[in-house]
């Protein structure tokens, strides 16, 4: 089996704490011959936590399926092209958005845009020297997707979306935050691509997630497992709802399905 795990709210809590039973479950699954993948909306540059990676994974699907690593090597990467990248940055800025360009090695943003923003502070603190300035690196960025602070009127926001609708699908997380992902890509597409690359039947996959941005991977996988007691009710999209993260949801689901 191929097992795919979201990070935030599934593998760890908001403090980036991972339970010992979650670690044990993943290690036992691998010992039993299953391949375990992170499957995250985070770009690879934002997946560097040594405690997380130290659990041991066979691969990482990052940036909503636009980049895939297996066995320590990059086997697929879809970057936004140079012309599309410049068009994107110029357009979102014209409409008052504050962008974060998310790539395999770096995240690009302007510190002045996020000094008073909670999410921006978290990104800045975690990224350290992997942060780059959009303006200082103009046109030389490498990124697969972007997020934007969108503290603008809804009509203005939607006009911007319309101008870039040929390039991106949108996940509106709140009135202040939008995620812009190249069309045709999501966490479910990442699972399908891994199966294609490894010659695996997608029926032999499990996906574990807690949020609405995990919907596509829960639907794509042979078995979609939703974490219990979360902000989003995913029962419509999942085949099984496990206990909460705090109550060892990953471990209990893997025991239920005899993966460990």
Question: Helix and strand layout, with pairings?
Answer:
Blueprint: E1 2-5, H1 20-31, E2 35-39, H2 50-53, E3 59-62, E4 67-70, E5 73-77, H3 82-94, E6 98-102, E7 107-108, H4 118-127, E8 131-132, E9 145-149, H5 154-163, E10 168-172, E11 177-182, H6 187-198, E12 205-209, H7 215-220, E13 223-226, E14 240-241, H8 249-256
Parallel strand pairs: 1-2, 1-12, 2-3, 7-8, 12-13, 13-14
Antiparallel strand pairs: 3-4, 4-5, 6-7, 6-9, 9-11, 10-11
Keywords:
single chain, 260 residues, alpha/beta, Rossmann fold, Hypothetical Protein, Haloacid Dehalogenase-like Hydrolase, Chain: A, domain 2, 2 domains, eight-stranded mixed β-sheet
What is the residue-mean pLDDT, rounded to a whole number?
95
Morphology: globular
Major sheet description: 8 strands, mixed
The CATH topology of the largest domain: Rossmann fold
Helix content: 25-40%
Radius of gyration: 18 Å
The CA-CA distance between the termini, in Å, is 12 Å
The number of helical segments is 8
Question: Any idea what the CATH architecture of the largest domain is?
Answer: 3-Layer(aba) Sandwich
- Poorly predicted runs are none
User: What is the percentage of strand-forming residues?
Assistant: 15-25%
Please state the oligomeric state of the protein chains shown: single chain
Assign the structural class, choosing from mainly alpha, mainly beta, alpha/beta, alpha+beta, or little secondary structure: alpha/beta
The tally of structural domains comes to 2
Order of strands, widest sheet: 5-4-3-2-1-12-13-14
